[in-house]
Amino acid sequence: MPMKKRNEHPPRFFLKFFRWYCHPRMQDYIEGDLMEVYALRRKTLGKRKADLKFIIDVLLLFRPGIIRPPKKHQNLNPYGMYKSYFKIGWRNLAKNKAYSLINVAGLALSMACGIFIFLLVKHNLSFDNFHQNPDRIYRVVTELHRDVIAYRSSVPSPLGEFFRNDYTYGEKIARVFTGRDALITLRKGNELVKFNEPEGLAFSEATFFDIFNFPLLQGNKATALTAPHTAILTERMAQKFFGNENPMGETFWLDNKLPFTVTGVLKNLPSNTDFKTEIFVSYPSLKSYDPWLASDKEGWNGIRDGMKCYVLLQPQASIAKVEEVMSAYVKIYRPTSKNVHHYKLQPLADVHFNPQYGGPMGKRNLWILSVIGLFLIVTACVNFINLATAQALKRSKEVGVRKVLGGVKRQLFWQFIFETGMITFAGVSVAALVAYITFPYVDGSFKTQMTMDLFSDGSLFLFVLALGIIVTFLAGYYPGLVLAGFQPVAALKGRLSQQNVGGFNTRRTLIVTQFAISQVLIIGMIVIMNQIRFARHADLGFDKEAIVMVPVGSDSTGTLADALKNEISRMPGVEKVSLCFAAPSSNEDWGNSIRFNNSPEEVNFRTSIKSADADYVSTFDLDLVAGRNLLPSDTVREMIVNEAMVRKLNLASPEEAIGQTISANGGEMRAPIVGVVRDFHDKSFHEEISPILITTYRNEYMNYAVKLNLAQAKSVLTSIEKSWSQLHPDQMFQYEFLDDSIARFYEAEETTLKLIQIFSFIAIFIGCLGLYGLVSFMVAQKIKEIGIRKVLGGTATHIAWIFGKEFVRLIVIAFLLAAPVGWWMMHHWLQDFKFKIQINAWTFVWAIGCSLLVALFTVSYQVVKTALTNPVKSLRSE
Fold first, then answer.
1. What is the DSSP string of 802-817?
2. What does DSSP assign to residue 357?
3. In degrees rounded to 5, what are phi and psi of residue 729?
4. Residue 796 to residues 261, 863, 866, 869, Cα–Cα distance (Å)
């Protein structure tokens, strides 16, 4: 390679001075640019002028903030550079208002969602973590092994007392039985004040307050619940019952039968606990409330919902050893039962998150929410990167001038990061304001009872701060590298192209990512909506429309119940009435083991008993497939079973079941089968249909099922309330439409659907913001090309298709990526249902159709406006 001539170099003295003065790390960034600019000037201006300008360039490098001078020259203002960054950044943002507004709006929406998701995850992770020694607190649960394994959070009532007396593994043991929908009455002179408490009250051993950190404001926790008929109330409940009076020593009644004297007042329970009951009464009182449940002998024969046992283990106790010794109780007290119990210890930290044992929030749902929040933030960052790289060409000459004047790559990079930080700070501020304003609505809609205080909640403040920093670097890193990497000569001469600012391929990739995320959310929303619609409108096997369930009343005798039934049946607007234990589909479940055809052994499956009168089949329009209906009776004389029972009994047909004998409830209920009904869903679609028997067992008639004419529903309910209250003046009249109670089976899915809908719309909206900004930039870049095409005969349709085909192609590619991911996610979500929809092709057609429609509306205004513009205007400057 030939040597360059001496006179082709700039003045050697100033070149050596530059190398001596410049920081070594910056020489590679600056010297190459200086030499390139010098060569360009020498060709155009000549050597003398090029040498003079080179000297001026070197002298300009001595200004503060460009390079680091020797220590003897160092006397800089550390804030000067950042002040300069702020001024330049503010001018650029103010100059490009649309660009700034789109980015701030996108970041604000995504970060507001991030704040809500953080609060929701934080709230759920904090459940019952405030107790002392939470790692040693366990709940005893039961696995029921029959033909299938069932999981119950309850245990036989004597288990806790026997374990306390037989072993020393438990430092403290507490039994708690919670009864829901308690009727609480107070007698103030001749007035009877009634309260219905949906969360009920808890019969609790005194050791409960040794295990759990629920402090008493009044009373002694060691003695407050030792005597029968004593009670502890929370502050809120004491205020509700007794107003501003001192509640200590006051008396209230449960179901107008059992009196309780207040011996303690609890501090209000925090919102982040799964204990919702605010009335605690002494456990010895259970003998008066339910003798069977309180019996240490009879209690082994079954499990009642609401009976819980909590254990504070000794520090060195082995969980495996405790579960092993508890298995002995099964052999001693349930040796012949086909319903084999396995007692397990469930950690307190698992109670809130384990759906098998009734946990309200699975950890999988929290992970899904967290991933969705991340998706939204990534979508907003993609927007920013797209628009920033698209805008980069407009700033190329600014970058070229700054580099010629000594700006180095690192400085330009941090300049852009600082500008990104300004946009992010604005986005965080708007997000915090949006979150604060909408928080009460969100908290009320999802019934979470969360709190939000940005400045007093340290974890929330750190999250918002970290979110702002991460988003700044995530959104600003790549555009900063692109801008800082411009070659000054090419920038000043306008030779930069789209390839120099990341190219269309980069932006295509980002748009595909953005729309793929949106389409995954749309697929999830469609599947959840279809599954909920299927559960609500599918044939349940019985009529649930216009049926209202009215409690019989705790003091009712058979005569009163029949009299009221007859009176209700004569009311105008009442079509049918039945006395029953519960509706065909209900959370109220009477599980039992049966014997078939005089067999000495029980069957190995669980049966659900529906005690009901002879009008039950016609009221709920159950379909008899064999045999006949029950005859009116006050005792168990006949039984009807469902098809699931026939299959479980291995009978060839429903007709074969007619005349066979079933013995249930420990032999107390024994009768022949006289009819078989078509299967109906007795629980939610999450569960299989149970084997069911229906029989006339008056002792368990808990409700009136009233079939109404909806046109007269209001007047009928008023009449029923009047008649009911006359018979039960000391009780509260309540009713519930059957379809409303069935809808509660899917509350968790409804909540998930709400969240998915909100996040899907936000993701789509953020994508639309970015798409609108990008198409505006593309239109500006191609304005003269469009003018030439129109002059040469191009039609408006042809011009619009130039832009449209690009976005259609990208959306189709995004769909090809999103479809398998969405299918996989929703396929696993549907596994929680025993009866579920199939994910068909229409789900994906709707997803891509929505994306195309949204993209069409987003780009159509700018594209159509450009296509219809007079080409003279766009070509006038040529």
1. HHHHHHHHHHHHHHHH
2. G
3. -65, -20
4. 85, 9, 9, 9
